[in-house]
Amino acid sequence: MPAVYSLYIINKSGGLIYHKDYGSAGRMDTNDSLRLASLWHSMHAISQQLSPVAGCTGIELLEADTFDLHCFQSLTGTKFFVVAAPGTQNMESLLKHIYELYTDYVLKNPFYEMEMPIRCELFDINLTQAIQNDRFALLGR
Amino acid sequence: MAPPPRSGDAIFANVDRVNAELFTLTYGAIVRQLLTDLEEVDEVNKQLDQMGYNIGIRLIDEFLAKSNISTCVDFKETAEVIAKVGFKMFLGVTASVSNWDPEGTTCSIILEDNPLVDFVELPDTCQGLYYCNILSGVVRGALEMVSMKTEITWVRDMLRGDDAFELRLKLLKQVPEEYPYKDDE
């Protein structure tokens, strides 16, 4: 049973620029994934305004009965979030690692246009590897 | 919970690097080609700045991802971070910050060592050329992505006989990060 169900990347204006499902749980069609992305973008923005904590940077973790949603927002406004099995550990470091892969294999690709959907094979390959390694690390514990 | 910020030296030691000479020569070839294509020195300055800007808006994310740096409290800290971590991480040299104005919005970043100019002598025909103009563009682009509009100019240039490279950074405005949710406007 894979720990990470799916990964989303949202650009700073709220557009979904990357979506990938891992395993068969929690799969969504294109429309639903777009809807989730824009919903999350807005909820994240609202949470910043509603938060009683000064300097809040938005929701980091949403816990539901059937999944956990972990979110990381870079200082440049790009959001990365994974939907994972409830209680999955170490998602912060996985998201951080995904951010590094994004800077290496997406932003450094001269043919990638900023803010546009990501279609970079090298990114896919390295991402799959990172998520698989994460799964093995989980099994080892 | 967030990992501690890493120093410029630590990151520099960990990333893949290319041979410095290849880098210097490649940059030289680009400048040379621009001079041939655009003919006007001013146009070349502009183009180098634009190329730097395009690099900067992408490079900032790598910088943030690898340095674990979080939000700076003020522009002073920002300038220090660019000089101590940014320049070290990507160019392998350390710069210093000085000449602050009383408001804390303008300062100089001084580079004593600059790998881009290792083999360069400016000919008489290119006296108006800011050979390293790509660097100012990079800094401008990177800062723009973290909501700071800046104006960056070269004050001193070793290729023009000065004793160091001096970049003048001027913070024009800080764009607030909040969403503009103003229904009444």
TrEMBL record, chain A:
<dbReference type="Pfam" id="PF04099">
    <property type="entry name" value="Sybindin"/>
</dbReference>
<dbReference type="GO" id="GO:0005783">
    <property type="term" value="C:endoplasmic reticulum"/>
</dbReference>
<keyword id="KW-0256">Endoplasmic reticulum</keyword>
<keyword id="KW-0813">Transport</keyword>
<keyword id="KW-0931">ER-Golgi transport</keyword>
<dbReference type="GO" id="GO:0005794">
    <property type="term" value="C:Golgi apparatus"/>
</dbReference>
<dbReference type="InterPro" id="IPR007233">
    <property type="entry name" value="TRAPPC"/>
</dbReference>
<comment type="subunit">
    <text>Part of the multisubunit transport protein particle (TRAPP) complex.</text>
</comment>
<comment type="similarity">
    <text>Belongs to the TRAPP small subunits family. TRAPPC4 subfamily.</text>
</comment>
<protein>
    <recommendedName>
        <fullName>Trafficking protein particle complex subunit</fullName>
    </recommendedName>
</protein>
<dbReference type="GO" id="GO:0006888">
    <property type="term" value="P:endoplasmic reticulum to Golgi vesicle-mediated transport"/>
</dbReference>
<dbReference type="InterPro" id="IPR011012">
    <property type="entry name" value="Longin-like_dom_sf"/>
</dbReference>
<dbReference type="GO" id="GO:0030008">
    <property type="term" value="C:TRAPP complex"/>
</dbReference>
<keyword id="KW-0333">Golgi apparatus</keyword>
From TrEMBL, chain B:
<comment type="subunit">
    <text>Homodimer.</text>
</comment>
<comment type="function">
    <text>May play a role in vesicular transport from endoplasmic reticulum to Golgi.</text>
</comment>
<dbReference type="GO" id="GO:0030008">
    <property type="term" value="C:TRAPP complex"/>
</dbReference>
<dbReference type="InterPro" id="IPR007194">
    <property type="entry name" value="TRAPP_component"/>
</dbReference>
<dbReference type="InterPro" id="IPR016721">
    <property type="entry name" value="Bet3"/>
</dbReference>
<dbReference type="GO" id="GO:0005783">
    <property type="term" value="C:endoplasmic reticulum"/>
</dbReference>
<dbReference type="GO" id="GO:0048193">
    <property type="term" value="P:Golgi vesicle transport"/>
</dbReference>
<keyword id="KW-0813">Transport</keyword>
<protein>
    <recommendedName>
        <fullName>Trafficking protein particle complex subunit</fullName>
    </recommendedName>
</protein>
<dbReference type="Pfam" id="PF04051">
    <property type="entry name" value="TRAPP"/>
</dbReference>
<dbReference type="GO" id="GO:0005794">
    <property type="term" value="C:Golgi apparatus"/>
</dbReference>
<keyword id="KW-0333">Golgi apparatus</keyword>
<keyword id="KW-0931">ER-Golgi transport</keyword>
<comment type="similarity">
    <text>Belongs to the TRAPP small subunits family. BET3 subfamily.</text>
</comment>
<keyword id="KW-0256">Endoplasmic reticulum</keyword>
<dbReference type="InterPro" id="IPR024096">
    <property type="entry name" value="NO_sig/Golgi_transp_ligand-bd"/>
</dbReference>
